[in-house]
């Protein structure tokens, strides 16, 4: 049996497996579902029964897309067909016909120390002008983004008592439902304590909004607004850029790459190594000032 109904059933079974056995996060499951349903629509509801030629036709349909997007979609389909094959729902795995774009990992956008100082100067100004809770909430959010390198989703969904007095760390459940320990600076704990006084006692979240917690979209908007007010082009700043700044500035200060991997919650250190490219200016200066040949030239001179 083939058709849209069968595709929906098998995609649902695949997502259940990913949630139960692989511990995939909700956002990961939503991305898989979107990519698989999109491919099913392009193939007229025959994704589960697709032939290698069908998958090659998907490659043509994906041509206008960015390489990273194609790579993500192809990876989702590979896992789907591997699941069908492992569960004996297909006798073959046609995924070899899917494209493998060599998407180069882009260097992350970063903020220098001067730009970060501008953000905090604007936060100080807002707190001085407005005694209400809004500037305190924004300060707590920015302190945790830049001071602890939290992901946006991790930040907005923090439980009400995630940050405790006298406890200089957080225990986070991040991507793949994995736990990690995240140190919190005294500044960040102080900012959270000031904001927490305004959080309703019955709230489940540290940053509530209506019946749920603050959304990632609203956090993104707030950070953009703060950047514009601080005189920084808004396109240069986002919650993820502040996470990058946290990592880059720690590396500049001499942090160990393995420690940085743990702090950021990266499963693969190759993801963390991208920050070594960002700090290339300091590395060039290091070579020019510390290499033995430099000392030899000085002696000759």
CATH architectural arrangement of the largest domain: Orthogonal Bundle
Using the coordinates above, name the CATH class of the largest domain: Mainly Alpha
Across the major sheet, the strand order is 1-2
Pairing-aware structural class of the strands and helices?
mainly alpha
- Beta content comes to under 5%
Number of strands: 4
Overall average pLDDT: 82
Structural Rg = 24 Å
**CATH fold node name of the largest domain:** hpI Integrase, Chain A
CA(first)-CA(last) distance? 82 Å
Provide a count of the helices.
15
**Helix-residue proportion:** 55-70%
Quick one: CATH superfamily of the largest domain?
Answer: Intergrase catalytic core
Biggest sheet architecture: 2 strands, antiparallel
């Amino acid at each position: 049996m083939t058709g849209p109904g069968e595709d929906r059933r098998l995609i649902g079974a695949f997502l259940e497996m990913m949630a139960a056995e692989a511990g995939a996060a909700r956002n990961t499951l939503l991305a898989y579902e979107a990519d698989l349903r999109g491919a099913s629509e392009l193939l007229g509801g025959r994704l589960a029964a697709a032939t290698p030629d069908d998958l090659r036709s998907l490659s043509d349909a994906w041509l206008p897309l960015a390489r990273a997007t194609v790579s993500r979609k192809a990876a989702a389909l590979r896992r789907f067909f591997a699941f069908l094959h492992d569960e004996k729902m297909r006798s073959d795995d046609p995924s070899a016909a899917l494209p493998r774009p060599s998407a180069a990992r882009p260097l992350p956008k970063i903020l220098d120390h001067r730009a970060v100082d501008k953000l905090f100067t604007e936060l100080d100004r807002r707190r001085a002008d407005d005694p209400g809770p809004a500037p305190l909430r924004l300060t707590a959010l920015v302190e945790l983004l830049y001071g602890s390198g939290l992901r946006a989703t991790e930040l907005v969904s923090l439980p009400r008592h995630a940050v405790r007095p006298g406890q200089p760390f957080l225990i986070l459940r991040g991507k793949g439902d994995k736990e990690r320990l995240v140190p919190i600076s005294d500044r960040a704990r102080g900012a959270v304590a000031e904001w927490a006084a305004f959080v309703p006692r019955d709230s489940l979240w540290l940053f509530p909004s209506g019946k749920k917690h603050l959304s990632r979209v609203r956090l993104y908007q707030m950070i953009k607004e703060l950047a514009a007010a601080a005189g920084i082009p808004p396109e240069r700043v986002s919650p993820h850029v502040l996470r990058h700044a946290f990592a880059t500035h720690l590396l500049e200060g001499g942090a160990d790459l393995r420690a940085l991997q743990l702090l950021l919650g990266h499963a693969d250190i190759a993801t963390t190594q991208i920050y070594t490219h960002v700090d290339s200016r300091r590395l060039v200066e290091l070579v020019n000032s510390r290499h033995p040949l430099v000392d030899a030239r000085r002696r000759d001179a």
